[in-house]
Structure formats: structure tokens, C-alpha cells
């Protein structure tokens, strides 16, 4: 079962924001709507390369252009095998935040709110 079938979605329900030419070409050949392409990114991008992409996707999410962001990428398993990995980035799944920890967690009252901290940290990054 494909990821789209598992989520009860069709190609028409999905908009692709492709980072890298291979990903953009892959989805275009299969008839997906590729709304954004960022080509020329290195194999191991540094902060400056991803800063504008992070700004764009968080702004689009905040403005409700889309309701979910899932990142899909190839994980190098061995010389003869790559595995497709998919992770939901937005909205943040708070049930998974402490899933790997055996330690007790505490709740904190944050001021400003976590949402304001997120916006400040992602959207107010220095420009190149």
C-alpha cells in the first residue's frame, strides 16, 4: 500500500515542494503538481542553503496554504540499497516528543508561547 493510499489521498490532493532536481523530476514524471523547485542544493546542505526554504515552508504553513508538511527522502542504507523515508514535520506531533525517553517529563509554562518562539527562530533568521 502506498503512502497516498494509506492516507486516503490522490495525486490531486498533494502539492510537491521539491528540494533537488532529482526529486522534482521524479514527481513531475509521475504526474504530481510540483509547485516549487529548489535545484542545486548540495548533498549535505549547510544552514545558509536551507534557511530560505525553511522560511518559505513555515510561512506557507502559518498562512494555511497547506495543512500538513511531510518530508520524503532517500536514506542510504548500503551501496545496493536506498530506503524511502517519510516524516511528518508540521504540525508537530507532540505525542512523539518524549516517545523514546524513559525519563519523566515535566510541563513548562512558556512566555512567550512556543508558537511565538518558533516564528521568531525560523522567520527572523539573518538574511544572506
Automatic annotation (TrEMBL):
<keyword id="KW-0406">Ion transport</keyword>
<dbReference type="Pfam" id="PF00231">
    <property type="entry name" value="ATP-synt"/>
</dbReference>
<dbReference type="InterPro" id="IPR000131">
    <property type="entry name" value="ATP_synth_F1_gsu"/>
</dbReference>
<keyword id="KW-1003">Cell membrane</keyword>
<dbReference type="InterPro" id="IPR035968">
    <property type="entry name" value="ATP_synth_F1_ATPase_gsu"/>
</dbReference>
<keyword id="KW-0813">Transport</keyword>
<keyword id="KW-0472">Membrane</keyword>
<comment type="similarity">
    <text>Belongs to the ATPase gamma chain family.</text>
</comment>
<keyword id="KW-0066">ATP synthesis</keyword>
<comment type="function">
    <text>Produces ATP from ADP in the presence of a proton gradient across the membrane. The gamma chain is believed to be important in regulating ATPase activity and the flow of protons through the CF(0) complex.</text>
</comment>
<keyword id="KW-0139">CF(1)</keyword>
<keyword id="KW-0375">Hydrogen ion transport</keyword>
<protein>
    <submittedName>
        <fullName>F-ATPase gamma subunit</fullName>
    </submittedName>
</protein>
<dbReference type="GO" id="GO:0045259">
    <property type="term" value="C:proton-transporting ATP synthase complex"/>
</dbReference>
<dbReference type="GO" id="GO:0046933">
    <property type="term" value="F:proton-transporting ATP synthase activity, rotational mechanism"/>
</dbReference>
